[in-house]
Amino acid sequence: MSPKMLFWVPTLLRLALILLAAMVPGYFFGKTVGLVAALIAVCALVILQLGYLWRLSQWLDNPDSRLSDASGIWTDIFSRLYKLRREDEHNRQQLNEWLTRFRQAMSLLPDGVVIMDDVLFLEWCNAAAEQHLGLSNERDKGMRVTNLIRSPHFIDYLILGRYEQPLTLSLRDRKLIVHIIPFENRRQILVTHDATESERIERMRRDFIANASHELRTPLTVINGFLEIAQADAGLAKETRQAHLKLMVEQGKRMQNLVEDMLALTRLESVEYPLRPEPVRMAALMEQVYQEARALSGGRHEITLEMDGPDISGSLEELRSAFGNLASNAVRYTPDGGRIRLSWRLGEDGPRFAVSDTGIGIRPEHIGRLTERFYRVDKSRSRETRGTGLGLAIVKHVLLRHGAQLDIDSTPGQGSTFTARFPMRSAIVATPQLETSG
Ligand code: ADP
Predict the structure, then answer these.
(1) How far is the CA of 329 from the centre of ligand 1 (A)?
(2) Rounded to whole angstroms, how far apart are CA atoms 232 and 247?
(3) Mutate to test the pocket of ligand 1, among 382, 383, 388 (most ligand atoms within 8 A of CB)
């Protein structure tokens, strides 16, 4: 007999007792007494069963309470119900844990996720969707999404229901790519991707190509113009031809400078060219930058050099290019007779290179944009002085690679100071040389 069948034994015994209760008194005291005795036994049995049913109904009202002990088949029923209840609790707990984990994972997603019901009421959204769309899961739950996101483009997109193509939406200073995915029973998932940064990079790339093409086109047009003249008129006067050749060489040089600066910038930005630091002898580097500035000035400015800082660890080539650009800008943007001071010092927070000039200065609204590629305050002045418009962008990248930063302090009409601040860790502490006797 299976263990479950055993639970039926007391119940079957009780039924047997009822039969006995009907038969024994019936045998001794007649049929009527037997029937009455059997009726009383049946009533007692029914009352017992009703008692168990009542306990069961009490427990169903409050399933967290304990089911009291029973006997017979009720023991089996109660214990099975109790087991089911415990399993149910366990499943519910697991489901809750899973839901919590799912929500945590969703809240870490960089993309926004909004779940809407069949009539576009908000059911749930994650943290990224709250940020992208200005929603609040707590506050807006149960509200119609079209009342929460009041963009005509978005509403049209929802109404037309052509979801094969994503929607590009400008919302709250962001560029969002919105996808809608219908799922079970006309519910919809709305996914938002923030494309602001990639859009900015794409715009920068487009601007860079447009600017570079424009910058290259101007000297090319000049060179082609002169070449056409030379081709059409073989009998040009020698002086005119010389003048044309001089201008063509100048324009060729300009194109070369531009291409070299563009290649330098590409290298500086590329992960394939990581910085390979080496000890840089600053005295020699500063002397070179100073001599180059003097050569460029050709005696038109009073240029001084202060050298009081340590050697550093960095790339000699890159530092020469960055410091050279800052020094050449000072010469190019300072009228004749002005003063330029180059210095290398050890400040409280680290070594710094500074170039101060008494030049034309820069208005405050331009300062934040000077390190953008091809940004110039005065285009014609930059071109006159053979500027490519990429010098400060190169400086910025070189300094970034050295963990340094550029400070610009300028007063229009009075002059500017460009300071490159290096971290203290880049300074090389001089080790005392051991004296050797020969
Ligand atoms: P450019 O080749 O035009 O000089 P840069 O990137 O070196 O390009 O500089 C960007 C712009 O910053 C310049 O066009 C100029 O307007 C301004 N600038 C840079 N240095 C100075 C300076 N020392 N004094 C005044 N303006 C400056």
Answers:
(1) 6
(2) 18
(3) 382
